[in-house]
């Protein structure tokens, strides 16, 4: 039976879909070939096979082969390797959602389109949820470490900035407080997990919490080692804290399908309020005790 010719607009959308499918096939295949976990390898291979099957279905209607986007393959492969497979894949899927492909319009001329759309929305999402990663398993520990460091260390730096007004001394105090805070948070997280019977994950939770805390400390203290003016250093530290909150809020929103704006604004407001209170307390301490450095 002769297939009815498709309209130019549907053909254009099918070619875009073809490029997306073959590109994602190569991304998933490369990731599958480089993961050590057998379960994750099977999941990624299954998704890669689905993408290739979809590509061949579209090719029947367009009558042509389409090359993958080499830039997209390279970009998302390394994002997934560096920031986690789940994050990389969900970021990739978000980009696919924004692609100019109207499946309901395509389905009027291509019967398979409805089924492929359902697979893209349901089946592949189910497979993605099956991925297992330490980065996501211990995301609560990472958030705990970052939150505490941003609130505690930024508050400490703000208070010391006005009380001492010496960047080197403030930086030294921030480093000491940061190391002590990281060790304290790590030990607390370890004991908390042990008390809940999570002996296997206690050490990893403690490590993730401590490293996240130290990561935030480095960002916040660095301006005091670069700038001579304590108030410029504090301003840059505040900007750094907002940047860190933006990055990890975006990461969590993508990886865990959570609202980005609410989490970001909550953390920025909390850090700002604590910083202002500490800044004011530092000023009062300086006046009350007549501190001059």
UniProtKB/TrEMBL annotation:
Per the UniProt entry, what are the Gene Ontology biological process annotations, in alphabetical order?
Answer: intracellular manganese ion homeostasis
**Topology with regard to the membrane?**
Multi-pass membrane protein
One Pfam family this sequence matches? VIT1
Superkingdom, natural source: Bacteria
**Subcellular location field:** Endomembrane system
CDD domains referenced in this protein's UniProt entry, alphabetically: Ferritin_CCC1_C, Ferritin_CCC1_N
Record InterPro entries: Ccc1_fam, Ferritin-like, Ferritin-like_SF, Ferritin_CCC1_N
Cellular component per GO, a single term: endomembrane system
According to the UniProt entry, the coiled-coil residues are: none
Q: What terms describe the molecular function in GO for this protein?
A: manganese ion transmembrane transporter activity
Q: Which UniProt keywords apply?
A: Membrane, Transmembrane, Transmembrane helix
**Keyword flag Transmembrane:** yes
| Keyword flag Endoplasmic reticulum | no
Question: Which positions, given as ranges, span the membrane?
Answer: 138-163, 169-185, 206-226, 232-252, 264-289
- The main place the protein resides is membrane
Q: What name is this protein filed under?
A: Rubrerythrin diiron-binding domain-containing protein
Q: Which organism is it from?
A: Sunxiuqinia dokdonensis
């Amino acid at each position: 039976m002769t297939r009815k010719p498709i309209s130019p607009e549907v053909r254009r959308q099918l070619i875009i879909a073809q490029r997306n499918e073959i590109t994602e096939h190569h991304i998933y295949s490369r990731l599958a070939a480089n993961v050590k976990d057998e379960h994750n390898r099977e999941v990624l291979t299954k998704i890669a096979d689905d993408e290739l099957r979809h590509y061949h279905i579209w090719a029947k209607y367009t009558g042509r082969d389409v090359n993958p986007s080499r830039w997209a393959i390279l970009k998302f492969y390394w994002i997934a390797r560096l920031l986690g497979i789940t994050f990389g894949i969900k970021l990739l899927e978000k980009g696919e959602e924004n692609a100019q492909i109207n499946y309901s319009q395509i389905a009027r001329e291509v019967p398979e389109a409805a089924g492929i759309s359902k697979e893209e929305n349901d089946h592949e999402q189910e497979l993605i949820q099956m991925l297992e990663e330490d980065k996501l398993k211990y995301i609560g520990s990472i958030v705990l470490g970052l939150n505490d460091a941003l609130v505690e260390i930024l508050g400490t730096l703000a208070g010391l900035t006005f009380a001492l007004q010496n960047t080197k001394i403030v930086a030294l105090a921030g480093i000491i407080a940061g190391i002590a805070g990281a060790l304290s948070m790590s030990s607390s997280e370890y004991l908390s997990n042990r008390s809940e019977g999570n002996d296997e994950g206690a050490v990893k939770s403690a490590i993730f919490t401590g490293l996240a805390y130290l990561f935030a400390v480095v960002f916040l203290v660095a301006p005091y080692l670069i700038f001579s003016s304590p108030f410029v250093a504090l301003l840059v530290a505040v900007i750094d804290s907002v940047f860190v909150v933006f990055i990890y809020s975006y990461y969590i929103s993508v990886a865990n399908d959570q609202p980005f704006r609410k989490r970001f604004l909550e953390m920025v407001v909390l850090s700002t309020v604590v910083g202002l209170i500490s800044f004011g307390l530092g000023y009062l301490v300086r006046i009350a005790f007549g501190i001059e450095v």
